[in-house]
């Protein structure tokens, strides 16, 4: 869930030096490859509640409330956040509350984490103080 806004400025337009009229057309835009550069994580702020599925090709930071499945490269659940659903990613870091399931290569439950559900992982770290009520099982790569 990324929101992108572009503000045009006068230098973005090609002008006709023989004319005193307004710019005729937009100047050439950056290549598509340049627009795919890492722009930081998509953020669900503490003031936001989302109902439905979230999916990003990049990272997701959740500080609010999500009722639905979440998929991203790295998914970080902040210490005041709650998620009801399945979290999927290469790395899932939990400092808040999840009721559901985590499926990830690497999972970290911070000391403030509250997890109720199962974890499927390759790597799992549970810090002292974290609460985990569920089952953990390793995910093995298919040959």
* Helix-residue proportion: under 10%
> Rough shape?
globular
User: Which runs of at least 5 residues are low in confidence (pLDDT < 50)?
Assistant: 1-19, 22-35
**DSSP summary: helix tally:** 1
The count of DSSP E runs of length 2 or more, i.e. the number of strands, is 15
Radius of gyration: 21 Å
What structural class should be given to the helix and strand makeup?
mainly beta
> For the terminal residues, how far apart are their CA atoms?
33 Å
Strand coverage percent: over 45%
Task: Provide mean pLDDT, rounded.
Answer: 81
| Sheet of most strands | 13 strands, parallel
H-E string: EEHEEEEEEEEEEEEE
Topology:
Elements: E1 13-14, E2 25-26, H1 32-35, E3 42-44, E4 49-51, E5 54-55, E6 60-62, E7 65-67, E8 70-71, E9 74-77, E10 82-94, E11 97-109, E12 114-121, E13 123-126, E14 131-133, E15 136-138
Parallel strand pairs: 3-6, 4-7, 5-8, 6-9, 7-10, 8-10, 9-10, 10-11, 11-12, 11-13, 12-14, 12-15
Antiparallel strand pairs: 1-2
């Amino acid at each position: 869930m990324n929101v992108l806004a572009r503000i045009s400025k006068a230098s973005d337009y090609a002008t006709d030096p023989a004319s005193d009229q307004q710019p005729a057309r937009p100047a050439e835009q950056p290549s598509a490859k340049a627009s795919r550069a890492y722009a930081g994580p998509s953020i669900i702020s503490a003031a936001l509640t989302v109902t439905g599925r979230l999916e990003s090709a990049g990272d997701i930071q959740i500080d609010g409330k999500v009722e639905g499945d979440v998929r991203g490269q790295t998914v970080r659940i902040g210490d005041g956040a709650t998620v009801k659903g399945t979290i999927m990613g290469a790395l899932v870091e939990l400092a808040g509350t999840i009721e559901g399931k985590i499926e990830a290569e690497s999972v970290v439950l911070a000391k403030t984490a509250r997890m109720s559900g199962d974890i499927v992982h390759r790597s799992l770290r549970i810090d002292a103080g974290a609460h985990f009520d569920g089952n953990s099982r390793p995910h093995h790569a298919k040959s």
